[in-house]
């Protein structure tokens, strides 16, 4: 830009950063026949609000704290298998998808979390809205501050010369 | 603002870094369109959703029913017209569900008391910072008297950024 301001391009950041560069949230992996009680306990243990359901190393579903909330409101016990209350075949990301794909999926589908598949296990983790927000927050000031310190450095060099 | 010399997080507008005394003035001058927008736009720009509030005396079960009825994951708890707490689905998972007897207790026992709030006239950058430092997904918007006026979420902020600055709804 002609006024010398630092151009921070969010679209470029989101399209050039891949899911593999994020710190994914590692979530519990459960089998479909485990109970809701076991799912709740596993989520509580990692203090995260979702768990992924795998069968034969394939991702078959996701269960979230919102599902549990609905069941509590219906006065349902947590004795039944998680497969009866999970969302089957959720939308997923792969490690080489761009953040822009993740943001678009979240915006279009109203999702807050997306499982990341690929690799040896049935899923490698979750990308959630907060992960992306934190990534963006960490990168927005970086451009400005790096620029500022470069400016200070060159001034110091000039003075010392 | 974050000191580029030592990384100390200073209050906005500080002339020198509180920790290492290096000057900070002038550093915040060059900025991209996005950076200008988030420092100049207020929380009001996000059009915060109207909060759903409950009195601190309701039971946890009633609070959960209220969340489900409103399809939300976060309630504000009010007492005498002031926000006294936030109660979220994460509190349900982490603190309530280990013992179903907790459902009959008062929500005030399980809420996060005296939560951090923002005002309509705080900058979006401030809200982003507060959310990312505190690790919150929601921030209540409070009036001058501490009354509940709105609520913003990480999703609201990501939507604001990605629609305005990344054209995510473009066909391309």
Describe this structure in words.
- The complex is a heterodimer of chains A (161) and B (172).
- Chain A is an alpha/beta fold.
- Chain A has one domain (10-160): CBS-domain, CATH 3.10.580.10.
- Chain A has five helices and seven strands.
- Chain A has helices at residues 10-16, 36-46, 65-73, 99-109, 129-160; strands at residues 29-30, 50-55, 58-64, 87-88, 93-94, 113-117, 125-128.
- In chain A, helix 1 packs across helix 4 (99-109).
- The longest helix of chain A is centred in the last third of the chain and has 32 residues, at 129-160.
- Chain A starts with 9 loop residues before the first helix and ends with a helix.
- Mean pLDDT of chain A is 84; it is low at 1-5 and 143-161.
- With 172 residues, chain B is an alpha+beta fold.
- Chain B has one domain: CBS-domain, CATH 3.10.580.10.
- Helices cover 29% and strands 17% of the residues of chain B.
- Chain B has five helices and six strands; from the N terminus they run αβαββαβαββα.
- In chain B, the strands form two sheets. Chain B has a four-stranded mixed sheet with strand order 1-2-3-4. In chain B, strands 5-6 form a two-stranded antiparallel sheet.
- In chain B, strand 2 and strand 3 form a beta hairpin.
- The radius of gyration of chain B is 19 Å and the shape is globular.
- The two termini of chain B are 35 Å apart.
- Chains A and B meet through helix 1, helix 2, helix 3, helix 4 and helix 5 of A and helix 1, helix 2, helix 3, helix 4 and helix 5 of B.
